[in-house]
Structures are given as structure tokens and as C-alpha cells.
Amino acid sequence: MRRLLGDAVVAEPAAHYLADATAQWRGISGHADAVVLPENTGQVETVLAWCTEHECQVTPRGGGTGLAGGAIPLSGGIVLALERLCAVRSFEPERWRIEIEAGLRTAELQRLARESGLRFPVDPGAAEQSQIGGNIATNAGGPHSFKYGTTRAQLTGLEAVLASGERIQLGGKVRKDVAGYDLLGLLAGSEGTLAVITAAHLKLVPAPESQLPLVALYPDALAGTAAIERILAWGLEVAVLDYLDAGALALTAASFPIPVPRDAGFMLITETDGSAAEAARLHAEVSEALADNLLELHAPTAPGEIAALWRWRDGIANQVAAHRGGKVSDDIAVPPEQLAAAIAETVAIGARHELEALSWGHAGDGNLHSTFLVDPRDAGELRRADDAAAELFAFAIASGGSVSGEHGIGIAKRGQLARQWAAPAVALHDAVKRAFDPGEILNRGKKPGAWPAG
Ligand SMILES: Cc1cc2nc3c(=O)[nH]c(=O)nc-3n(C[C@H](O)[C@H](O)[C@H](O)COP(=O)(O)OP(=O)(O)OC[C@H]3O[C@@H](n4cnc5c(N)ncnc54)[C@H](O)[C@@H]3O)c2cc1C
Question: Are residues 177 and 249 in the same domain?
Fold first, then answer.
């Protein structure tokens, strides 16, 4: 491979290419024979054709912020890191669209859009490090996905390279396209198991003139979720509906921009946006919807205060993990009206397994980050956390929900899809994998329908 690609091949992979954010908090890492850092799509084609010919395993890698172990190389082979493939191929702000390469970092895309009065509305928490290819491969979401949708909603086209080394182009600048099956949708969330994404066409939206966050504190989850129900029932289209339960609040309140009342057991973060007049009108109506049982309302308006709030929001995962050094955090989704039950069940499951448990997440989408705090060096605790997670998944499925709303299956949730889907659907899932990657060189063993494979 070095004869073909020269310096793009690094034979002694630096440790950070063997792990992702899952490793940091759960102690999982892998091994690889080499890292390849392609600079263009042609080099990706060369790598994959070579790997198919030599039956060499390939682990596609973006920014390594994934929380399901998807970018961890399990069985040697190469790590295909997309970081040098980061050009902006075209940017047409007046038409609200951009074509970028997969290795561009999410925050860089957000910055580019902002500088032209536009917005890329997907805002996953690790945006300074994650890449757009990784966002597509996990169909990442963020707080603003409640109003604007996840990465898939912004995607109009993809360039990708198949395991065979052949390049495909799906969609493009066209905003509507039903000519074939929805292969764009299939690759969004495919976690590097079907193809390597090399570039994407994305829609942008005009930046709202005004964004006004509102943070409401309640004594408990029942009072907080009742406020969410009122916002929805009154037809108030807020951009964000995020929450923290009592446990998450206890670990993060000290760094919150204003003092948090001692008896607060639930935080609701919401935001209104639009023209200055629209955002202000909605802000007044949402404030009214939040009023019952309210302990405290924080309504920052100065840009610095608003930025401080979102910086704090982005840091929740790290602050929670710092408490015991590690966490086993799963991203179940339930029908939103079951949020209060899921919050309570997370804590109850933790107690049954002698683990401190808490949650925060995207309330409007019914998407919890249900978290069991662990010391990652304690094998017994990690085992108990895995048992607790299995109970959590069973709860999500019984609630009509999903074992993963956001982070994917990767290796962390192997076998769970077969609990959620009926056997014929799981067989179809695995047939799709075989159609794209018959030699199973791409991320083998990740996101399987049936597990053990076959
Ligand atoms: C502090 C923190 C906060 C987070 N907050 C959120 C959040 O709010 N919402 C959310 O959805 N996620 C969140 N995440 C998870 C993570 O940031 C997202 O899953 C993100 O989209 C991963 O992107 P990445 O570039 O880091 O991908 P990686 O971690 O490098 O890879 C993730 C998966 O995508 C595959 N992949 C990566 N690039 C490509 C490519 N070009 N082609 C094919 N496959 C590829 C990998 O093989 C792997 O399976 C958070 C993580 C952290 C650490």
C-alpha cells in the first residue's frame, strides 16, 4: 500500500487512531496494522480496491468522537482516517447549499455558514472535533434537531466509495429525488459498514435574526415534563427541548451560569428563534407555558450570556464522566410522552445494579442519555453497567422506543437490534450489508442485525 500511496500510509498508528470517545469513558480500544490518511477520493478508491483484493479489514474514521465504538479497529487491518479530505468543493450561500469533503470538521462548517448569514442547524456536542463524514455515518443530531432535524434532513447528495473501490454519486444539488430507493438515507447512519463517505452536498438554512434561550428549573421530572406537554399542546414551535434530571443537575449545577436552587430536580432548556419579533412573541408564550410549578427561570439575552449557556450545555457529558472517571451512557429513545417514566426507570435500573444512574438529553425527541457512572478500571462495575444497559434496552423496546436514538450500535450495542426488530427485518438489514460489502471488509462486526453474525 505504501508503494501505491507513499506517505499517506503510517505503519505505526498513534494511539488516538485506535480509540474513540467510547474508549475514553468505557476503557475500550483496538489495534491496527496501519493508518491511511488519503488526500483525495482517488486515494480512497485505491485503498479500498487494495483491501478487497487482500482481504484486509478497514475501519473508517472521522473525528473519533463516536460513542458506540464504531471507529475502533477491532481486528487489525487499516484505519482509514478522513481528516485530510477536508476541502470545501463549492459554496453557494445565495442558494443555501454547500458541497464539502467528509473530513471537514462540523464546527468549521457551522462557522462557514454563519459567516455568510446562514446556519448548519445540526449541533452535536463534540462539533470542534467531529467531522461531517462521521456526522453522516451516525446521522448525528443535537439540541436543535428538535426543530431542524438530524444530519439526514440536511443531506441532498453524497459521494462515497464502495468496498470494491468503485466510486458512487447519490443525489447532488437537487433538493428532491425519488428516482431510486433512498440510498442516501441508507448511508446516513450506516456507521462505516456499507461504504466510505468522501463528500456531501448539504442544505443550509438562513440564520435566524434572533435566538432566545429559556432555562426552567422544576422540583422534579413530573413537573418538568408537564411543562413540555404544555409547550407541545399549545402549538409553540420551539427550536430546542433539552433536559437534565436531578442526578445530572447535581453534577453540573456548580458551573451553571446562575445559581441553581437547591431543591431543583429537573432542568428544561428551550429556545425560540426567528425574526426578532417572532422570537420575542414566542418567548412570551413559552414563558407562560413554563410557569406552573416553576422554581426559577433563566432567560439570557446578551450574546455572551447565551454563549455561556451553550458552552455549559456542550460540557455536560465531560462533567458527568469526570465524577467517577467513566460512564456507560446509552442513548435510548422513547415516545416523548414516556420521558418521565424513562427518567425514573434509568435511576431504578441503576439502583438494582448498585450503580449511580442519571440522564439528560433531548426531551422533545424522547432521546435520553441514560448514564451509569463507573470507574473504568473496575471490571466488576463495567460488567454491572453492561447488565444495567441490557435492562434499559429492554425497557426502551417495551415502550415502543429504540435502543439507539443518536449514537448508533457500533460495538457497544451489538445484538440489540435483533431484540428491537422482528427476524425478517433483521435478515433484510444483514442482506443490505452483504449487498454493499460482500467480503465484509468494512467495519466487520459493527452494527450487525444478528449477533453473532449469521
Ligand atoms: C462530548 C460529546 C458530545 C456528543 N454529543 C452528541 C450529540 O449531541 N449528538 C450526537 O448525535 N452525537 C453526539 N456525540 C457523538 C459523536 O460526536 C457523533 O456520533 C459524531 O457524529 C461522530 O462523528 P466523528 O467524526 O467523530 O465520527 P467517528 O467517531 O470517527 O466515527 C463514528 C462512526 O462513523 C464511521 N465513519 C466516520 N467517518 C466516516 C466516513 N467518512 N465514511 C464512513 N463512515 C465513517 C466510523 O466508522 C464510526 O462507525 C457526542 C460525543 C461526545 C464525545
Answer: no
